[in-house]
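hey so u asked for the seq, here:
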Amino acid sequence: MQPVQPGSRLGPYEVLSPIGAGGMGEVYKARDTRLDRLVAIKVLPAAVAGDAERLARFDREAKAVAALSHPNILAIHDFRDEDGIVFAVMELLDGQSLRERLDEGLLPPRRAIDYAAQIARGLAAAHRRGIVHRDLKPENLFVCADGRVKILDFGLAKVASDPEAETLVEGATAPPPPTPPLIATRPGVVLGTAGYMSPEQVRGQPADQRSDLFSLGAVLYEMLAGRRAFQGDSPADTMSAILREDPPELSSVNPSVPASLQRIVAHCLEKSPEQRCQSAQDLAFDLEGLTGTGSG
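ran it, structure tokens below
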């Protein structure tokens, strides 16, 4: 399969310029010539496009996410195969990833609350449709220029009927899968990112919606503290910290964080799913209650 070049066409989409690339695929800015609008195109790696099982699952999950139609979830417009190039067509966003924003420093509590509440609302919509993200992290969250936060990359998501499995962790020293990871492709494999995984993911246990809430708690902690909640010298050390350690009290690293917000973060980061915050919708309500914002 030849690389996609600016100026080429993928069906009705005119490729304009590259946006980024990684193990999850290459992303391009493009124009939908039918509707005369700008879009983002993610071209799947050849290893995925050529694997019928992985491709079928990606197709199912793309359709599940496309059906969500929520303002805090990246919209998927199309999923196509043109001359052996398999790609997803998504809305084109203007802004920066949450990782890029955090590289500039921690967020004021009110801004962090707003972002976390928006993420929680997006997760609530996904959870209602039986979709668990399983890889929530700052790299998969996007802050638009208008302040709206979008959840990206449901490529590792678990749809309600999918089997559960053990964990392969991004950056770990365990033997890598034979092809670039995109989605869980067989029983026994679930992908995640060390530092944001829930304890049950680290243990290879079933991960339900409460796992996403642990990950959101880790993201919220980082927004407020300017440092990761769990950070070891290696992925193995980080996973051990997730299982056995609590992050430093937020008040010790950022005295401006109110006690009520510290309690919410701590509730999200409970090691036991049964003791953790149980519902993304409830979490959004609790966060909005700190600022008096509505649930729009």
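Confidence is low (pLDDT under 50) at residues 162-191. The CA atoms of residues 19 and 28 lie 5 Å apart.
lmk if thats what u needed
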